[in-house]
Amino acid sequence: GAVVSQHPSWVICKSGTSVKIECRSLDFQATTMFWYRQFPKQSLMLMATSNEGSKATYEQGVEKDKFLINHASLTLSTLTVTSAHPEDSSFYICSVSERGRTYEQYFGPGTRLTVT
Amino acid sequence: GQNIDQPTEMTATEGAIVQINCTYQTSGFNGLFWYQQHAGEAPTFLSYNVLDGLEEKGRFSSFLSRSKGYSYLLLKELQMKDSASYLCAPMDSNYQLIWGAGTKLIIKP
After folding, report:
1. pLDDT tens, residue by residue, B71-85
2. Which residue from A31, A60, A105, B87 lies 20 to 30 Å from A38 (Cα-Cα)?
3. Which of A44, A91, A106 sits opposite B99 (nearest CB)?
4. 3 state SS of A116
5. How many CB atoms lie within 10 A of CB B14?
6. Which of B8, B44, B32 is nearest to A110 (CA)?
């Protein structure tokens, strides 16, 4: 399977500030990257799908101006939570799909965001 | 609509066998994944079934019946480290994974 890293693994920020989370595919070229959010004891919620070099596709109900996604290269995607609020506190996880294998997703270790 | 149905929680004994069932309804179907998720961690891939039948991989096996919209994950020789949530995730016609809340498996000595 693929090796995916996320940075930071956890972050605490103050309300109103912005936080950037990086997702890196370490050993293959990821044509597609996914960003998920998971609240405690709940299912994974897909936030957006990003393809390298193009704009991300956001799921219904996800504010694209609040959750900025950039997929600048085949190995890096970033999620920026702008003007964070306490309700944005969650576990953010990225996953990647390998070129030519769109069905299999490999997950990063996740980033736990706490907004105070 | 799209729907996943799994038991919320199951308990089993170390060394035993447990079967976690999953029924699903999706718009189209492109296979079904099982993932394991330990508390506070991201999911890890366990198996993928796209054709009917049983796929065996070590202590874990996964079964699929497309006509019944049914899958199960079978875990043998349970170990304490198998305590985790198990997520059944079918893939719809748009190659999007549909996620349920998963089954929390508790292993007792």
Report:
1. 999 999 999 999 999
2. A31
3. A44
4. coil
5. 13
6. B44
